[in-house]
Amino acid sequence: QVQLAESGGGLVQPGGSLKLSCAASESIFTFRVMGWYRQALGKQRELVASITSGGTTNYADSVKARFTISRDIAKTAVYLQMNNLKPEDTAVYFCHARSFALPPQYYWGQGTQVTVSS
């Protein structure tokens, strides 16, 4: 069973930075795409950033130029560097992975809380 474990959330002031980590239980090349979603209180879960097995990245417009997704193949981990955080970035952040299999299998981490507040 694939497991994804997030870490790195917390409380930060507006303008601050946090780095989220997602440790996968197997090689990240097992997955067609890995990414980060977030869900704010009372809102739908939304895609924040993703990275394909080939290294192509994609970002939500609201985080472009502020967030960076990256990976460490040796550590089977994916990261989300978040800079210039805003109160509207407050949410639970989830690591996500999609397999190459057809039909695709989707995996989620348990989530990590990010709170941006002064």
**Radius of gyration, taken over Cα atoms and rounded to an integer in Å:** 14 Å
Strand-residue proportion: over 45%
Q: What overall geometry do the principal axes of the alpha carbons give?
A: globular
Helices, by number, come to 0
Stretches where pLDDT is under 50 for at least 5 consecutive residues are: none
SSE pattern, N- to C-terminal: EEEEEEEEEEE
Share of helical residues: under 10%
Per DSSP E runs of 2 or more residues, the count of β-strands stands at 11
What is the makeup of the main sheet? Answer: 7 strands, mixed
N-C termini distance: 40 Å
- Counting helices, strands and paired strands, the structural category is mainly beta
Overall pLDDT level:
95
Summarize the structure.
It is built from no helices and 11 strands. It is mainly β and 118 residues long.
Structure notes:
This protein has 118 residues and is an all-beta fold. 0% of the residues lie in helices and 53% in strands. The protein has no helices and 11 strands. Strands 2, 4, 5, 6, 9, 10 and 11 form a 7-stranded mixed β-sheet that branches. Strands 1-3-8-7 form a 4-stranded antiparallel β-sheet, with no helix packed on it. A hairpin with a 6-residue loop joins strand 9 and strand 10. The N and C termini lie far apart (40 Å). The mean pLDDT is 95.
